[in-house]
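Reproducibility note. Readers wishing to regenerate the assembly model reported in the main text can use the exact inputs given here. Chain order matters: entities are listed in the order in which they were concatenated for prediction.
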Amino acid sequence: MSDATFLEFVVFFSAAVMILGGAVGVITMKNPVHAALGLVLTLFGVAVQFVAMQAHFLAAVQVIVYAGAIVVLFLFVIMLLGVDESMDLSIEPIPIQRPLAAVMAVGLVGLVGAAIVRARDALIIAPGDGIATAADAGTHDANIKQLATNLYGDHVFAFQLTSVLLIVAVAGTVLLTRKWPKDVADTESSDA
Amino acid sequence: MLALDPILEGPLLWTPLFIIIGKVLFIFVVGLVATMFMVWYERKVVSGMQNRIGPNKAGPFGMLQTLADGIKSFFKEDLLPTRADRIVFRLAPFLAFVPAFLLWAVIPLGGDFSNGNDGTVTWFGHVTRVQLADPPVGILWVLAMSSIGVYGIMLAGWSSGSKYPLLGSVRASAQMISYEAALGLSLAAVLLSSGTLSTAGIVAGQNSLVDWNVISTGIVPFVIFLIAVTAELNRPPFDLVEAEQELVGGFNTEYSGIRFALFFLSEFMNVVTMSAIMVTLFLGGPQPLFDIPVIPGALEGTIWFLVKLFAFLYLFVWLRATLPRLRYDQLMDLGWKVLIPISLGWFLLLAALREFSPDGDAAESLRVVVISFVVAVIATGLFAAALKVSARNRAAANQPADNTGVTV
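Running the prediction on these inputs yields the following structure tokens for the assembly.
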């Protein structure tokens, strides 16, 4: 085992511990703010894995979008609504939820395991294979350019559909949270 | 790894290793000294603007006042509120402080960029850059670190277990989320004109005054970026986060001693780093305006960088001494209804210019601008009409005063 692969293992396992530790934290922490911080740890671990695989852009976006925007929004809502008290995790409002989650978790582990066993040969590639890195293209932005061609060239239709989906979701949220004006009859009777 | 710094190419030797360690130490020291200087500078300039003397006891012109305050804060009692969340309360100052430091890693602090040079210098026979690292994602690192910095402020307010800090941190997160969009969009305009994410690449692209991004993107992204950065930094006139008159001290009310000092330092350090980032993005970083005689090229870059940096530092102090604080609704209106539409529209205009008039031909550019302007007017008109309709609906819903029974 050469030094480089040893280093890769160290990075991989420390990031994996971060990811799993954060994930366990999310579901076991009693306080929602602590759970959200566990989620941040998981997202950071994923970003580290991206860097280890030479996908720098994905790593940066992972931190900016997920850690920097989405979890901040979670925390903001938790603080604004004042639901940051510790919860008793033994009380379960929806009784079927936990057994169902267990079944799904087992199923997911089975599926991923089966996929790994089936595709074992194809999975053994060096990190960064198939990703244009700065080293082999001789320029800084090869990684980003490749991503851009992929996203805005090959998959532009799917990309556009996704943005339509997001717009619909935003418009729907605005519509759902809007306070509709009361009926005229209603207001008149209350005035009287 | 290879792209981070030309010094890392080839086998790892002792000299490059020492150069890199030296750079890390240098940046650490420069960061701290710059912050201490900024605290003193702000106090001194503001006192000048307000007809006071300001710090004048410790050291020449009171320059060592910050050092004295820092040493004092080490010996102050470190309070932990009873209702505080212990772990998060202790973690928060570091979440604010560490990202502020890490930002320095990607800023080109000097180097010879004149006459189209690529900014590398040779130290002890090794080619390197006058910046710690030049990662391929360069400027995204800045965005990532500043979005981590938000956690420090949010969690400090929340973990204090007290209402004024909580209000301060809720305000802070709302403000930072709102202005990050405008910040990102004006940054996108710069990236469009530079065509690269690497900070060294962005600086190298601005090798004459007309190529400076402040001019080549047409001043508007610069102004928006400046306003958005002021809001991100919670500097006046956007300092609702720590409005003394309303919130005691904002998110850091419950902090004392060295933990408070860490927040204080990270705030001022962020002012310096964000100024440096604006210099890098818009004013060409270490790019010279003219050649200073005698001084060698690499040092000259640092001098130019410092000159530009000082202009921004003075501007921030000036803003603080001049402008009154915005009201909360004004803050949100400015962010969402003014800055985001303008920066988005400007970004589209720049993209259209690039696509349909790639050679910068005057007649074609004019045509693109006119068409874009017409489209913008139509879009603004539609938007205004929609706002008007919704305002009318709201007014009608609030007071169905007339007894004819109007439906809404």
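We highlight two features of this model. The longest strand of chain B covers residues 120-123. Chain B has a mean pLDDT of 82.
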